[in-house]
Structure formats: C-alpha cells, structure tokens
Amino acid sequence: MITVLTGGTGGAKFVWGLAQIVPPEQLTVVVNTGDDLNWWGLHVSPDLDSVLYALAGKLSRDRGWGYEADSFRCLDRMRSLGADGWFQLGDLDLATHLRRTQLLASGKTLTEATAELCRAMGVKNRLLPMSDDPVQTVVSTPEGDLSFQEYFVRERWKPSVTSVRFEGSDQASTAPGVLQSIIHADLVLIAPSNPVTSIGPILAIPGVRDGLRCSTAQVIAVSPIVGGAAVTGPAGDMLKMRGFAVSAAGVAECYRDLIDVLIVDSQDEGSRPQIEAAEAHAAFTNTMMKSDDDRIALAKFALATVAREATR
Which residues contact residue 266 at a Cβ distance below 8 angstroms, ignoring those fewer than 6 apart? Predict the structure, then answer.
C-alpha cells in the first residue's frame, strides 16, 4: 500500500506516473487544501483538481493546470460584467466547481464530494483532501497578508515573503482515512511539491507528523529543487524565507526527522554529504518530468529505491 502526500503541478505529474504502474486499489493520494478558495461563490480546490484531472487523463498539457482543451467564454463574460477575473476558470473546469459546491451545500463533506467527483470521472484511486475542515495558507508580505492564490496567481509570486502560516490548521482534523493511510502504508512518498506551501499545510494538521514518525513505512521524498533553483514556482523563495538553503540539502533539512530517503536530480550528486548530514539517504536520478516517459521512470525509480534501502 502506497500513500502520496502532494500538491501543485509537479505533484500531479508525479502521481500520474505512479498511477501508471501501481494498481489503483494500492494507491492513496493525500492532497493539500490550504490553497482552496471561494471564487464567484464556488468552492475551488486547485490542488485536488490538478490530481483529479491528471488521474482522469484530463489535465491540460499546455498549461499544466485546468481541464484539457478548455475554453474561457464564461470568464470573458464575467469580466465584461465587472467581476474579478484574475483567477482563471475554464468553462469545463467551472462545472467541477459547480458540482463540488452543490455537493457541499447538500451536506457532503469535502472528502465525500471528492469521492463523488472521482466516481463521475472514472478515477479509481483513493483521493483524499488533507482535511474536511477549512485551512487557509496565508502569505505575509511587507504590504500585508495575501491568500496563497492572491500571492501566486494574482501577484505572480513577485512580493517578498516575510512569513507563511496555515490558519485553522491547529483546530483542524485530518480527513477520514488520512492518518490510517500513512500509519498503515508500506511506503509513503512525498511528491516533488513545494515543501512549505504544498506539503507544509498537510504536515501542519495535528497527527500527520507523528503519523509519519511512527509509521513502519519507508518515507521517501522527491526534491523539487534542481541545480539550486525550483523547477517551477516559488519553492526556492519559500525555503529561503524559512531559513533553509535553496538546494536539495535544504529540502532534506526541511524534512528532517520525517524522511528516510530524498530522491535528487543527478546533476546535484555533489549534495550527498549535506543530505546525509540531515539524516536522510540520497538517491539520484533524472527528476525533470518533461514527458510521460520521464514521469513513469521517476515513479519506477521511487519504488525501486524502497528495495535498495531494504538491503542497506
């Protein structure tokens, strides 16, 4: 049984690769919901949707987010009527949020609504939000606080960041099945997602860190930092803000006491001593998921790493 902690576009790609080689009944995916927002009165779960669309074969290849071959006529019309339009929802994507909001309004939890969307889209993997309770990632800047989507999408992650917090996390509970999937897993994988704003909210839910520490599973993370920079997005800025080096070694320090192995891109093989100083083994391969073959190869390498570590 394999459990993946994930968020962001890199995480969705990695999960897709795993789903090609792991039977659906053996794969549970726990997804960050700190990025969720209310947009035009709808409950939008960007990271859940990216994984959902990836597993359904509907994630846009051109954009890396949203529904494949979508149109944006509703967005254009809303803008013409004076509504905010900085958060871009496609027409087919909009249907997902309409249905989720409808399900939540009927009394379903986010976990139940996600399961219903999975069934409707033919996704057989177990896809879980980190919590059914509201948790909001808040990015503090010199000009004031921003929600993550305001920072990332509207401001294009240009403001300097002084701190990040996860409002509501200390009162939140893990969604049903999350802790069990971690504690009873044979393998826990942390996707190549932003350690601070994609994986951080999951780890902030009470019980998750303890679950990782007490699980007998191997815990293996994939570094989203390659060659001293984030592959995409503000992961480098976030690590630096938290006092970690913008490097694979910095990722290992961020996950200290939680992971057994860090998978790192081959060009960073010189970082092995620093990673091992953070009490994690290092394994090196190509982590740049530029094609479907790359994604599958990285997933296979992650599974093979378990076997190598077992003989260590």
Answer: 284, 285, 286
Residue 129 CA, distance from chain mean position = 10
Residues whose CB falls within 8 Å of the CB of residue 23, separated by 6 or more in sequence, listed in order: none
Residue 302 Cα to chain centre, angstroms:
17
Fold of 36-129: Helicase, Ruva Protein; domain 3 (1.10.8)
| DSSP-derived secondary structure letter, 59 | B
Region 6-13 average pLDDT: 96
Q: What is the pLDDT of residues 248-286, one digit of tens each?
A: 999 999 999 999 999 999 999 999 999 999 999 999 999
Q: Are strands 281-285 and 261-265 parallel, antiparallel or unpaired?
A: parallel
Interatomic CA distance for residues 240 and 247, integer angstroms: 10
Distance CA 151, CA 138 (A): 9
Which residues have C-beta within 8 Å of that of residue 74, sequence separation ≥ 6? 89, 91, 94
- The C-alpha atoms of residue 159 and residue 5 are separated, in whole angstroms, by 27
